[in-house]
Design brief:
Elements (H helix, E strand, L loop, with lengths): L6 H4 L5 E6 L5 H16 L2 E6 L7 H5 L3 H5 L2 H5 L6 E4 L3 E7 L6 E3 L5 E5 L14 E7 L11 H13 L6 E7 L6 H5 L12 E6 L6 E6 L21 H5 L19 E9 L2 E9 L3 E8 L11 E3 L8 E2 L8 H11 L3 E3 L2 H12 L5
Parallel strand pairs: 1-8, 1-10, 2-6, 2-7, 7-8, 11-14, 13-16, 14-15
Antiparallel strand pairs: 3-4, 4-5, 4-6, 9-10, 11-12, 12-13
């Protein structure tokens, strides 16, 4: 069985190195061992970045390096000088057991700091002049992204980097959600079309900025644990082989006629368009399908879009709209009276709803 190694993406020399793949394939392991190597051999520190503060504190922080330590990589990288890792006050230190006292002795200087995007207000005044690596773990989520998260992420990087140009940012994600604000905000327009085992390079004019995106190959020979996830459930494909996770959404129960359509509204999200028929037969429901042509914002059609527009027909947040028709649409949604042309369409709609402030 062959676990992930970041050596190929490191060869690109990109400032941002985005690594996407199956869960437990070694993405984080490779970056954590790399952080120890950089510190021990070059004296350079790293930052472990997460979305929420809970991920860099308490038990989660204490066990972060357990796998690295148990496999002997600390001892191997440091040539036996250190054998473990100790966590204290959002910092990780190389450590070892004192032979005479049996007590744990830690290095004077941390090799890695823990920072959360949600806690950056408390860290703005702190300087990290010796940090040359940022590891943003689990940047992809099936939960909620923070409002304007990409901007908050960049603000966090600005605090860390200051006026330097020698920092490398690793962004690690399991294939749990195809619709991610980072893809759009960073102009990564080919991520969803990538084949496993490939690396795409994005350049931004003459700025010198490069972003490398790697879609990891499946773990060679699979993992022993795959036997526990052999069910015919498409959501488990991410765990077993790194395919994009999709929920199973209700499809159209029967065909309807054009004359059954009361009205149609449209949705713009993540650079994609959807068309939604409100159908009335024996019951009233919504049928949502992809729209492959551009939207026209001046036709008097109701459009759900977060793009600012003065038209009264463009609804920025349907949960907060005062219009009765929009409230009726959201009532159908809340009651589960909505069907989808495909699971991909369901994923896009679900992520659109997650992006809204409900109350």
């Amino acid at each position: 069985m062959k676990y992930y190694s970041k050596k190929n993406i490191d060869k690109t020399g990109a400032k941002y190195r985005m690594i996407i793949g199956e869960r437990s394939n070694g993405k984080t392991f490779s970056c954590l061992t790399g952080a120890i190597h950089e510190y021990f051999n070059n004296g350079k520190q790293s930052i472990y970045l997460r979305r929420w503060e809970e991920a860099i504190k308490g038990k989660r922080a204490n066990i972060l390096f357990d796998d690295v330590v148990s496999k002997g990589f600390v001892e191997k990288i440091t040539n036996g000088e250190w054998t473990g890792v100790t966590y204290y006050n959002s910092r990780w230190y190389l450590s070892k057991k004192d032979i005479d006292t049996g007590k744990t002795v830690k290095d004077d200087t941390p090799f890695m700091y823990g920072i959360a995007i949600t806690g950056m207000e408390n860290d703005k005044s702190i300087s990290y002049p010796n940090v040359t690596t940022v590891i943003f773990d689990e940047f992809l989520t099936r939960g909620h992204y923070l409002p304007d998260e990409f901007i908050l992420f960049c603000n966090a990087l600005s605090t860390i980097i200051r006026e330097r140009d020698d920092v490398i940012i690793y962004m690690l994600g399991n294939t749990v959600n195809k619709y991610c604000p980072y893809f759009r905000e960073m102009g990564l327009d080919n991520v969803l079309k990538m084949k496993q085992g490939t690396i795409d390079i994005y350049q931004y004019g003459d700025s010198g900025l490069t972003v490398a995106v790697e879609y990891c190959s499946p773990t060679k020979g699979g993992k022993k644990s795959d036997i526990y996830f052999a069910f015919s459930n498409p959501r488990l494909a991410m765990i077993k082989g790194g395919e994009w996770e999709l929920d199973i959404y209700p499809h159209l129960p029967y065909k309807y006629k054009d004359t059954d359509v009361l009205t149609t509204f449209y949705v713009e999200f993540d650079g994609q368009y959807m068309s939604a028929d409100i159908v009335s037969t024996d019951d009233t429901f919504i049928f949502l399908k992809p729209k492959t042509t551009d939207l026209h914002f001046d036709d008097g059609d109701i459009i759900f879009s977060q793009t600012p527009n003065p038209s009264m027909y463009v609804i920025n947040n349907p949960y907060k709209s005062p219009f009765p028709n929009v409230r009726k649409i959201m009532t159908l949604v809340e009651n589960g009276k909505i069907f989808y042309a495909s699971n991909d369409t369901g994923e896009l709609w679900t992520n659109y709803l997650k992006s809204l402030v409900k109350f």
